[in-house]
């Protein structure tokens, strides 16, 4: 078992289209933009709130709750800005009203079948068949520059979630056939 931090290992991609969010392909992810090096070390926040519903009845003095709705919270990305426009990746990629998929690979690309760990952001490796990833269907809601201070210029990018997150997606090497279920 390997319990590791996202920092130095994980990868973050913005992918414009996926045929099946539960099984993104290597080609689809590579067609997107990797934004890992623009995101601050603690700059990715994907909350998932839950709501309960009251299911109490008159037969008991005990209050009871059941599962209600969950998720749909805004995703926040805090990213560095760069004076060189070609290196200002997150800002240039995540344009307001853009719809796509945030693909988060917490264990690195080309994950080893024995340890589950892959190559970190500092090592060149493409996503590979079998990699475990999270996929969030999102729309970029806003981009705002952060307060001027002692740190380097940075921004906050807010995304809305528009679909059911795929928290256990597995990368494939072939494009799936579209069916009624995944259309």
Helix-strand blueprint:
Layout: E1 11-15, H1 26-31, E2 33-34, E3 39-45, E4 50-54, E5 65-70, E6 75-80, H2 89-93, E7 99-105, E8 132-145, E9 154-161, E10 166-170
Antiparallel strand pairs: 1-2, 1-7, 3-6, 4-5, 6-9, 7-8, 8-9, 8-10
Description:
The protein is mainly beta. Helix content is 6%, strand content 36%. It contains 2 helices and 10 strands. The protein has helices spanning 26-31, 89-93; strands at residues 11-15, 33-34, 39-45, 50-54, 65-70, 75-80, 99-105, 132-145, 154-161, 166-170. Strands 1, 2, 3, 6, 7, 8, 9 and 10 form an 8-stranded antiparallel β-sheet that branches. A two-stranded antiparallel ribbon has the order 4-5. β8 and β9 (154-161) form a beta hairpin. The mean pLDDT is 88.
Query: In angstroms, what is the radius of gyration?
Result: 19 Å
- State the helix count: 2
- The tally of strands reads 10
pLDDT < 50 runs, ≥5 residues = none
Mean pLDDT: 88
Proportion of beta-strand residues: 35-45%
The secondary-structure element order is: EHEEEEEHEEEE
